[in-house]
């Protein structure tokens, strides 16, 4: 699956997210379909922990989808 994307404040494409941060990761199964999950939070969040958590959940969900 794809990597992690992080957008902070004005890096977000939507003006309504200009004071937030979005940490997102792609998940899915090997057959090709995928989606993204994300954490939306303040611009002063704990990025290393949030990135690790998003990566771990995406990997876990992908592994469950691959079993099914």
Automatic annotation (TrEMBL):
<keyword id="KW-0805">Transcription regulation</keyword>
<dbReference type="InterPro" id="IPR002571">
    <property type="entry name" value="HrcA"/>
</dbReference>
<dbReference type="Pfam" id="PF01628">
    <property type="entry name" value="HrcA"/>
</dbReference>
<dbReference type="GO" id="GO:0003677">
    <property type="term" value="F:DNA binding"/>
</dbReference>
<feature type="domain" description="Heat-inducible transcription repressor HrcA C-terminal">
    <location>
        <begin position="3"/>
        <end position="51"/>
    </location>
</feature>
<dbReference type="InterPro" id="IPR029016">
    <property type="entry name" value="GAF-like_dom_sf"/>
</dbReference>
<dbReference type="InterPro" id="IPR021153">
    <property type="entry name" value="HrcA_C"/>
</dbReference>
<protein>
    <submittedName>
        <fullName>HrcA protein C terminal domain-containing protein</fullName>
    </submittedName>
</protein>
<keyword id="KW-0804">Transcription</keyword>
<keyword id="KW-0678">Repressor</keyword>
<dbReference type="GO" id="GO:0045892">
    <property type="term" value="P:negative regulation of DNA-templated transcription"/>
</dbReference>
